[in-house]
Design a protein that fits this description.
alpha/beta, five-stranded mixed beta sheet, binds manganese (II) ion
C-alpha cells in the first residue's frame, strides 16, 4: 500500500491566492506520503507580466526541485492546468524530470492503479482530448497583463466572494462528473479500464465522494482567497 496525497489550484504567484499560507500543509502532506500529486494550476502564469515569464518559470522549477530534494522518499507528480501549461515551462519540466529521480510531470493526466488525476478543465463542457489541447493553446496565447481591467474585476469578484457563488452555480456536480467521464472514456480511462476514483480541480468547488456511474469523484478546492482548499489523502495498491 502506498500513501498518496493530492492538491490542486494553489495558483502560486497569483495575488488572489493565499498560496503562501498553504505551503506548510503541502510540506507536511509530502512528508507523510509516498506519492504527492499537484493537480494543475499549481502555478499561475496567466497573470504574470510577459517580460518576467522566464524568471517566474525558474522560480516554479526551483520550488519543485527544493521539495523533491527535501523529501526523496516521496515521488512528486505535477499535472498541468490551463494556468500553468506553457510551452517553455514544459521544456524546463522535462529537464527537471531527468535531473530529479523522484519528480515527474504530465501535461494532461496521471493514472495510479485505479485512480486518475487530472486538472479538470474538461469539466466545463463536453470536450475531447483534441479539443482540450486546443483549449490549452488558446489559454497560452491569451494576452492579459497584471494590471488589466479584467484582472481588477476579478480582484473585486474574489473580494466580494461572488466567485464562490458563481462557481457553485456554474459547476453542478452531476454535469461536472458527466463531462469528466466523457473525456476519460474517450481516452479509455473509464470503469472498463478499472478506474474507480477520479481526483480533479479547476472548478474551485471542493467535492468529496461524489458517485456517478460507478466512479467516485473528488475535488480539492483552491487556495483562492475566501475559498476552501483541502489536501486529500488516500491509499493505493
Ligand atoms: Mn484551471
Amino acid at each position: 500500500m502506498k500513501r498518496i496525497s493530492v492538491v490542486s489550484d494553489l495558483h502560486i504567484f497569483c495575488s488572489r491566492s493565499n498560496w503562501e499560507t498553504k505551503l506548510y500543509a503541502v510540506d507536511e502532506a509530502i512528508q507523510s506520503s509516498d506519492i504527492f500529486v499537484f493537480n494543475g494550476d499549481t502555478f499561475d502564469f496567466h497573470w504574470v507580466e510577459e517580460k518576467s515569464n522566464e524568471q517566474v518559470f525558474q522560480k516554479a522549477i526551483d520550488f519543485l526541485k527544493t521539495l523533491a530534494e527535501k523529501y526523496p522518499h516521496c515521488h512528486i507528480h505535477l499535472n498541468l492546468g490551463n494556468h500553468d501549461h506553457r510551452r517553455e515551462f514544459c521544456q524546463l519540466l522535462s529537464k527537471l524530470e531527468k535531473d530529479v529521480p523522484n519528480f515527474s510531470w504530465h501535461p494532461y493526466y496521471l493514472r495510479v492503479g485505479k485512480i486518475v488525476f487530472l486538472h479538470g478543465d474538461v469539466s466545463i463542457r463536453k470536450m475531447s482530448h483534441s479539443q482540450l489541447t486546443k483549449y490549452r493553446n488558446r489559454w497560452e496565447r491569451k494576452p492579459l497583463r497584471k494590471n488589466s481591467f479584467v484582472n481588477q474585476i476579478y480582484d473585486v469578484a474574489v473580494s466580494m466572494r461572488t466567485h464562490v457563488a458563481i462557481s457553485h452555480i456554474y459547476f453542478r456536480h452531476r454535469r461536472t462528473a458527466r463531462n469528466l467521464l466523457w473525456y476519460l472514456n474517450e481516452l479509455e480511462l473509464g470503469t472498463d479500464a478499472g478506474i474507480s476514483e477520479v481526483y480533479f480541480g479547476h472548478t474551485h468547488v471542493p467535492l468529496r465522494n461524489f458517485r456517478y456511474k460507478g466512479i467516485t469523484f473528488h475535488n480539492t478546492g483552491t487556495a483562492y482567497k475566501g475559498m476552501k482548499l483541502r489536501i486529500l489523502r488516500t491509499l493505493v495498491l
